[in-house]
Amino acid sequence: MDRIVAHQSGPLAGEVIVPGAKNSVLKLMVASLYAEGEHRLTNVPGISDVLTMGALLGSLGVQVGFAEGRHDELVLSNSGDIAWNPPPENVESIRASINVLGPLIARCRRVRLDMPGGDDFGDRPIDMHIAGLTAMGVEFDTDATHIEARAENLHGAEIALDFPSVGATENIVCAAVHADGRTVLRNAAREPEVADLCQLLVEMGARIDGIGTSVLTIDGVEAGSLHPVSHAVVNDRIQAATYMSAVAMVGGDVFVRGARADHMEMFLRKLSEMGVDVGADPTGVRVRCNGRLRAVDVQTLPYPGVATDYKPLMVTLLAMADGIGVMTENLYPGRFRYVEELSKLGADIRTDGHHAVVHGVDRLRGAAVVAPDIRAGAALVVAGLAAEGRTIISGVEHIDRGYDDLVGRLAAIGATIERSA
Ligand code: UD1
Asked: What pLDDT score was predicted for residue 91?
């Protein structure tokens, strides 16, 4: 198993380019299920989840490969013969496999799916997916290990989500694309990655209004009427935030090319409050920092709030900030598992329910830590750049699921970091 070795570094300088978003590309890949022929995705990040999703789609009848000589462009060839029951081994390791539910219902009117895996943040129910699809005429037979669904008569419906769930919004929109009549989805998730999927579906011939807002109106179009397109994946705001956090943590002056300030408003505002100088233009975001950060309080919320995926990074920044910061997690109560690892580096963090109280310390010390999930793993790498001595991060396979060459990109802006087998 590989390890990442991070040494105390900084200041960082230069430019880093932001790749496409994991939480978009996986869903865009799934959209290839709708139409026979050759689909293309560009700005594809080099992450292992893309390969996992490629294998899942392969088992359903879409062959996925890289365009000749390219590592950031996918060709997805839909044979026209799509299966409705993917084998469990292709479903278990990524959460985004739940995203085949909506398209398979739309396309095959029938699905059998084992319960998806993904990062372990505790309980991750799918009741809102099921309630929304049930309102559209889908009949479910589920237990703790699998989901079975049929839709003899898939029709539009008026649906209001209890909470703007990303996955439920995507599955309901995807089923509604081929439902009979109009679906109006209220309290829909507004994340840029959800908008990217809706945009792709519209390019393919779907009829969706209100993209990027909390009310989506989808008018069903006939099955078989969508066509393949070429589409560029939206840039990854979480990977962008990771490089910005590294600068905030150890100082420096870095241009994060491709970072979309309009997609990261609340995160950038928090960085500014902490004392980071943030300058945005249409091509990216420049972050400059020298001196100690100020502690702030942060709450995670659905978009446009501070995303839960930024949280391990923000807790890491607070760990060395001046003062006490309270982090409140409103999405996944179990998502504090990396706190124990940060404590091994000398961080002073106490958790109580869905709050973490972070007392900023003057120094962190290198230690051996384990990445518990994708984002927490990246946050431990960022912490390792600030810690005295050497921090050894194992569990790198989690980081590889969502980061395109994190080590190489950090090294290119001056971090002392390497990966070893
Ligand atoms: C997606 C992202 C994940 C991110 C999350 C929130 C992908 C592959 N993953 O996950 O990185 O952290 O959005 O921004 O895109 N919930 C229910 N019932 C449901 C569905 C969700 O109670 O039917 C709850 C969840 O347990 C959680 C909250 O709603 O507390 C948000 O979940 P959701 O937005 O659905 O997240 P995911 O789509 O799973």
From this structure: 83
| pLDDT value of residue 114 | 87
Q: Which CATH architecture has domain 3-18+235-420?
A: Alpha-beta prism (3.65)
Residues 387 and 144: their CA atoms lie apart, in Å, by 42
Q: How does pLDDT run across 155-182, given as a tens digit for each residue?
A: 999 999 999 999 999 999 999 999 999 9
Domain spanning 22-232: CATH superfamily: Enolpyruvate transferase domain (3.65.10.10)
Question: Is 119 assigned a catalytic role?
Answer: yes
Domain ranges of the chain: 3-18+235-420, 22-232
- Nearest CA residue ID for atom 22, ligand 1: 125
Q: Could you tell me the distance, in angstroms and rounded to a whole number, from the CA of residue 409 to the centre of ligand 1?
A: 28
Q: Does residue 292 have its Cβ closer than 6 Å to ligand 1?
A: no
For residue 57, the CA-to-ligand 1 centroid distance in Å is 22
- Token pair of 311 as six digits: 């949280």
pTM greater than 0.90 (yes/no): yes
Please, what is the end-to-end C-alpha distance for the chain in angstroms?
6
370, two tokens: 């384990």
